[in-house]
Amino acid sequence: MRMRRREIILAAGSAAILAASTVPSFADAPAGTVVGMVGNCSVVHAGRTTPLKLGDPVAVSDEIDVPANGKLKLRMSDGSIISLASGTRMSVSAYQTDAAGQRQNAQLALAQGLLRAVVAPVERPATFEVSTAVGTAAVRSTDWFIEAKPGSAQVGVLSGSVVLSSAATGRAVTIPARWGSRLEAGRDPVEARVWAPEEFQAVISRTNLP
Q1: Domain definitions of the chain by residue range
Q2: Of 97, 135, 136, 210, whose CB neighbour count within 10 A is largest?
């Protein structure tokens, strides 16, 4: 009887360890793939910095660094395209899709630099957010830019619309197509305005890759 009880305890312990090992880890979940690159871009994964090359995967929790002479293009797991300009640092906080590849929750953190996101459409409400030190920009499906600088962020929208909200005040502004807005630390977003073609061309050229 004593031996039988010990066997039951050991079996239960083994089952618990097996169950814990089979719990999915979203921290290492695949998020996208490198489809274009200029310069020596790198990724920090699990605390280790590794040079990137075409075809490399990017996972949730990865931190991506684009050098001053570089550019990077990612095709995300839902089909969205993320283009990063030179001098950009971005991390993938979350990127979840359903069995059909439809986006459910995408969250990127832009520490500095400029990114362009061509966000894939979805058939149901889904999250796509880019956070900066001063606020967060949220979209559904659109083609847009966001640039983070110390103490500020700027958004320009080519198509669709983006909601830019202040981390300090909670106030938000909706930016329609061909318009842009700016956000300073501790303040409300400024009223959206029409962007000149030259302003869009400037950010396009900084993020454009074949």
Answers
A1: 26-207
A2: 135
